[in-house]
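User: I'll paste a sequence; please echo it back and then give the predicted structure.

Assistant: Echoing your sequence first, then the prediction.
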Amino acid sequence: MERPAWAPRSIDISVPSVSRIYDYYLGGSHNFEVDREAARRAMEFMPGLPKVMQANRAFMRRAVRFAAEEGITQFLDIGSGIPTFGSVHEVARAAAPEAHVVYVDHDPVAVAHSQAVLAGDERTRVVAADLRKPREILASAEVQDLIDLDRPVALLLVAILHFVEDADDPYGAVAELREALAPGSLVVLTHASYEGIPLPTERAEGAVDVYQDIRNPLIMRSREEIARFFEGYDMVEPGLVPMPRWRPDTAPEDEDPWAFSGFAGVGRSA
């Protein structure tokens, strides 16, 4: 397999990556055949996965606009993935030109490509770090340089927590991040769930098994379990809902049924 110029020499391009699979679902070009193969296998069970990812991105953009309109100009995006059109810094700056954004990911391809895309941008930084180690994120030079934790921050945890197993204490990691943020901060979150998927759970489990096979377990949590990530924060209306129902730009009834798979919400600290 020929290695493209954008792929760091340090990565094994024979192993699928969830960020590159996500890029493939969104129609991006920063993925390999091994990623596309895994994506196609998952889509055999859940053919609407690209629609789910598109709804996820659309929610993210609406939530970032909301945060900027609320006066927040600092964004910490953990599990940011590979930059595509309409990334956080682009959406935020359309509403707040002075916005600062720090992207965090543990995938070397996502980090390397983000650094290349954002080279020379003094109001963005990229951190190679893992959500499961929140202290390392908060103590990183990039966060310390660009984010003032004494002022409100929008913390984005979009389509990332369902890749953190309970054994790795995702609730503890999110709590540590929440507690580090100033009053008025927001937590922006999406999470996969069997609830809302327009086919039997037994069928959807086939797609979950694909992620298990590539050693990136996909943890489907209930709405009640997802709500726990917002403990101590007040939910912004309309609460924790299917993605198309969070402050939609268009009528949710016009959305593809697959877009209602999983949940999205925004919480605000008092």
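The first helix runs from residue 18 to 25. The chain has a mean pLDDT of 93.
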